[in-house]
Design brief:
By secondary structure, the chain is of the alpha/beta class. It has two domains: 252 residues, UDP-N-acetylmuramoyl-L-alanine:D-glutamate ligase; 144 residues, Alpha-Beta Complex (Protein-Tyrosine Phosphatase, Chain A). The chain is built from 16 helices and 18 strands. It has a nine-stranded mixed sheet, sandwiched between helices. A seven-stranded mixed sheet has the order 16-15-14-17-13-12-18, sandwiched between helices. A two-stranded antiparallel ribbon has the order 7-8. Strand 2, helix 5 and strand 3 form a beta-alpha-beta unit. Helix 2 crosses helix 5. The longest helix is centred in the first third of the chain and has 16 residues. The protein is globular. 52% of the residues are buried.
């Protein structure tokens, strides 16, 4: 291992901190340019590694699991969601001495689906969680077949036990094709309902035989209770089953007492995230009291329905694909009262250059609910977003377009103030998320990093 690469990486992080810049990826990127094998060599010092991957919910699930494991174990964790090789290397460098020795030997990594096959063979992964599989960033992942292939390749290179979403037929296929031992988590059958809205749903066909899957009910996206009438492919029995009841998560495990756990984030999609984290913690022999304590102390990551305590009150959340966006819009619409919406769309590499997914997201919900008094579009593709809303019949007189992020945010906040300090919901793609969080933090007297019962998707 090149100690020089470690020094360069740590000095880069130090300089970025002095400049008050985000240091989640660049230190690792610089260090890897000096020593391309640095991630591999640092990882050899790990005794235990847990990985969370999948399309939506990675950051939230990893944060929930970190809150549980952190009660008893010092963790190396890419908590900010920097889930590419440079982000993983940066996380390791933070806990590495100047001589290249890791200070902690347990790692919890959120890893991007396309990155998993590039790094999984270097990591001593014991447990690997797949949250779900959806179409995401077509220019990076291609269609679903490509995403599934990348996940299968990455998982097959490990010795991990794989924890899969039983209610996602695509996730089940990943497990079947990977050849690794699997366990399943899923919501109880009564949590799935008949289709209410006409939304784009991935994975409609059985990947075993090609027939159209039959659903008894949906939770969201293609997640639900499914079976194939031709080959018999169906929802497997979940080893860890969950049910949301009166703001708590009831967890059912065979031959064990039912556990009532706090549910720190709302939304059925977050019930999946919480259940995945609970299941993984139990596989790691973490006690239920420790899990419950971790859930009660959970703090939401940046941009996952992050609340800024201001006038007007502002909530920031990531959107990046149709299914995730639909879940966020539904969660916001479930909040009572009128509100102002600000949507920031960029098309840089981390966002995905192709923004055609905007046309598959259910933005018609913003019109049908009648709660969205005004919408501001901003970011590099603000005009594309405004056009999408126009074709979704959002009233043009209540729609404004401002490409600069600060200008767009200012208009949204001032508009909300005019209407009596209505809450502002800011939806953002990756590269606009951190700048918006900084802008909002400078505009409020009290910054609430984590608020109970706020929904998040990723």
């Amino acid at each position: 291992m090149s100690v020089f690469a470690v020094w360069i990486g740590k000095l880069t992080a130090f300089i970025l901190h002095l400049a008050k810049r985000n240091a989640t990826s660049l230190p690792g990127k610089v260090a890897l340019q000096v020593d391309p094998r640095l991630l591999q060599t640092l990882s050899r010092q790990l005794h235990q590694c847990v990985v969370v991957t999948g399309t939506n919910g990675k950051t939230t699930t990893a944060a929930l699991l970190s809150s549980m494991l952190g009660q008893t174990t010092a963790l190396i964790h890419n908590a900010e969601g920097a889930n590419l090789p440079q982000g993983l290397t940066t996380a390791l460098l933070r806990r590495t001495s100047w001589l290249g020795r890791l200070k902690d030997t347990t790692a919890l990594f959120e890893i991007d689906e396309a990155t998993l096959p590039l790094v999984s063979r270097y990591l001593p992964i014991q447990f690997l969680v797949v949250t779900n599989v959806f179409r995401d960033q077509l220019d990076r992942y291609g269609e679903l077949d490509t995403t599934i292939e990348k996940l299968v390749t990455g998982i097959a290179a490990t010795q991990a036990t794989v924890l899969l979403n039983a209610d996602d037929p695509l996730a089940q296929i990943v497990g079947l094709r990977s050849g690794r031992p699997v366990q399943y988590f899923g919501l109880a059958a009564n949590m799935a309902t008949r289709q209410v809205r006409d939304q784009v749903r991935d994975g409609a066909f059985c990947l075993q035989c090609g027939s159209l899957l039959n659903y008894e009910g949906f939770v969201y996206g293609q997640l639900g209770s499914y079976h194939c009438p031709k080959c018999g492919f169906h929802t497997p029995t979940a080893d860890y089953s969950g049910e949301v009841f009166r703001g708590q998560l009831k967890v059912y495990v065979a031959n064990q007492p039912v556990q009532n756990l706090p549910l720190p984030v709302l939304g059925l999609f977050n019930a999946y995230n919480t259940l995945a984290a609970v299941a993984c913690a139990r596989l790691m022999s973490i006690s239920m009291p420790t899990i419950a304590q971790g859930l009660s102390l959970y703090q939401a990551p940046m941009g996952r329905m992050q609340v800024f305590n201001s006038q007007p009150r502002t909530v920031l959340n990531l959107i990046k694909n149709p299914t995730g966006c639909d879940s966020v819009l539904q969660a916001i619409a479930s909040e009572p009262g009128n509100k102002v919406l600000c949507i920031a769309i960029n098309d840089l590499a981390a966002d995905g250059r192709d923004v055609s997914w905007l046309w598959d997201a259910d933005f018609e919900l913003t019109v049908e609910q009648g709660q969205f008094i005004h919408c501001v579009t901003t970011g590099l593709r603000a005009e594309d977003m405004a056009l999408r809303l126009k074709y979704g019949d959002f009233p043009e007189k209540n729609l404004s377009c401002h490409v600069p992020l600060e200008e767009g945010l200012d208009v949204a906040l001032s508009t909300a103030h005019i209407y009596g300090d209505l809450p502002v919901y800011v939806l953002s793609t990756y590269t606009a998320l951190y700048p918006l969080a900084q802008l909002l933090a400078r505009r409020v007297s009290v910054y609430v990093q984590a608020t109970e019962n706020r929904p998040s998707v990723s």
